[in-house]
Amino acid sequence: MHKPAPIIKARNLTKKYATLKAVDDVNFQIEPGTCYGFLGPNGAGKTTVMRMIYCVTPLTSGVLEVNGENVMENMSAVKRGIGVVTQDDSLDYDLNVINNLLVYARYYDLTRDQAVRRANELIEFFQLSEKRNENVRTLSGGMKRRLQIARALINKPSILILDEPSTGLDPQARHHVWAKCHELIEQGVTLLLTTHYMDEAEQLCDKIAVMDRGKIISEASPWDLIKSEVSPYVVEIRGEKQAREKILAAVADQIDFHESLSDRLLLYTPDATPLHAQIQDMKIPVKTLLSRRSSLEDVFLKLTGRELID
Which domain holds residue 180? Predict the structure, then answer.
């Protein structure tokens, strides 16, 4: 079966601001109908990459192709195929729900009939029918986010860019946004995502690029990242430092690696059950002893460090 061409392709993509390389010679490609995520600490270059893709920030060097078009040669064609949902709330609070969509449709030269038809489809898809004539101010946070995504889809883009799509939402609203994202992927829309929520990346992304200091330092599916960068399971121990050190010395040859933090000890292992039982049998008093599956957060912190970056 013929493999479809990448919908986004970056080769040696670079963005410099004076002496700072915000994006430093990165390469990636994104398959159509998938969700691709960028993870990284603040200042890693994620947002700059996104802004270059939707033609707000010009490249310094390299080649970036979107939907087969070079972004430096045909920006208008690239922009027509992309919907963008920024982290900031950019809804028009002087308008009701339906008019937020209809006014935005004017930017894409839709006829009045096309705009009304598309707006009604999106209002139904995002379950906003009961609020269609309500002022945006009356909407909950989750409804506002869904309306922002709906507005970005008014022109039926093949690519939807989501910058922190569920920041500030309660768990129910977050899961509702995730469900709609999955439905969009099933419809063939390609999603490009940045998020600080590791569970969100695990839920949505087919492939993830971890960025740090302008470079992609690892790229794979969520589970492959976990398998390659950490171990499948973690045993967490909280307790006195002396107790943690005693446990580590006893099991050091049975783990893949460990992290000694100020408040706990993390033991990474391919199988947590025998290790957990062995530590229990030691009868060394600790505050907590628990086993869990490794997560993208473990990968993220291992690759980018635990030091706070402002």
Answer: 8-226
